[in-house]
Amino acid sequence: MSIAVYPGTFDPITYGHIDIITRTVKLFDKVVIGVLNNSAKTPLFSVEERVNILKKATNGIPNVEVVSFEGLAVEFARQNNASVIVRGLRLISDFEYELQMAQTNRKLAPDVDTTFLYTSLQYSFLSSTIVKEVASFGGDISEFVPDYVAEAVVKKLKERR
Ligand code: ADP
């Protein structure tokens, strides 16, 4: 069985992530989405909230599992018997960091490979950071994320103020 992991922060999930997920499931028998619990970052949503949002967003997509993880992506892949890490590539600016990570991961775990899916053109500008920034200035984010995510972002930002 071919298993891939798709790790990320997903703070919050966007249509760009959902696009990568729906395309990845066609390539593997099972996709495990790993929501990174990274103490170095201060996300808008807790890891539990991000996992719940992702579960809702992927409800109905077959062969997808959503879990949280800490630490190295290659370890997360091994724990899930995955031989592939999937990452999405948007702009040329993503490429340098992603290549560096992929090569580092290959040194750490030669048995785990990284594969990249290029973003669909309509999402090439989209990032979780942009979504939060637009929402923080009162902008409409309904074209970037599902409605329940947009509502959760607005609510969170209000609580933060
Ligand atoms: P990270 O903090 O690990 O970069 P993100 O949640 O920002 O986590 O992204 C997870 C993965 O999804 C990364 O591989 C990222 O490049 C990809 N991604 C994010 N936004 C998009 C998008 N709009 N289109 C395609 N891939 C995307």
Structural description of this entry:
By secondary structure, the protein is α/β, with parallel strands linked by helices. The chain has one domain: Rossmann fold (3-Layer(aba) Sandwich), CATH 3.40.50.620. 43% of the residues lie in helices and 19% in strands. The protein has 6 helices and 5 strands. Strands 3-2-1-4-5 form a 5-stranded parallel β-sheet, sandwiched between helices. The N and C termini lie far apart (47 Å). The model has no long low-confidence stretch (mean pLDDT 96). It binds adenosine-5'-diphosphate (ADP). The site of adenosine-5'-diphosphate has 16 residues, from helix 1 and strand 4. Adenosine-5'-diphosphate binds next to helix 1 and strand 4.
Apparent shape: globular
Question: What compounds sit in this structure?
Answer: adenosine-5'-diphosphate
Structural class by SSE content: alpha/beta
Strand order of the largest sheet: 3-2-1-4-5
Order of helices and strands: EHEHEHEHEHH
- The helix content, as a percent range, equals 40-55%
The helix count comes to 6
CATH class placement: Alpha Beta
The biggest beta sheet reads: 5 strands, parallel
The radius of gyration over CA amounts to: 15 Å
User: Average pLDDT, to the nearest integer?
Assistant: 96
